[in-house]
Design a protein that fits this description.
By secondary structure, the chain is α/β, with parallel strands linked by helices. The protein is 34% helix and 29% strand. The protein contains four helices and five strands. Helix 2 links the parallel strand 2 and strand 3. The chain is globular. The two termini are 22 Å apart.
């Protein structure tokens, strides 16, 4: 399951002891629309990883905090800290590499 994450909910989501992968996206972004199904499939295959999506248009506070300059951008968090990030569409097999830091 992919969670909707907002400025007010990110800190709570990051309190988990699981790896958290967050996708920064926007509705008008074509590549973001193509990335969504990849994240859904990755989420189904990896229930032990928390997957969240942040709409950058609605959540400017988080986007500014993490320096989001292009979308989609994916950030991986462990123990509440950002440990890896990449911009662009990431294929499912590469997502596994991204979270296994």
């Amino acid at each position: 399951m992919v969670l909707e994450v907002t400025d007010s909910t990110l800190e709570e989501v990051l309190k988990t002891d699981k790896v958290v992968l967050v996708d920064f996206w926007a509705e008008w972004c074509g590549p973001c629309g193509m990335y969504g199904p990849i994240l859904e499939q990755f989420s189904n295959d990896n229930p032990d990883i928390v997957i969240g999506k942040v709409n950058v248009d609605d959540n400017s506070e988080i986007s500014a905090k993490y320096g989001i300059r292009s979308i989609p951008t994916t950030i991986v968090f462990k123990d509440g800290e950002a440990v890896n990030r990449t911009a662009g569409i990431v294929q499912k097999d590469k997502l596994s590499e991204l979270v296994n830091v």
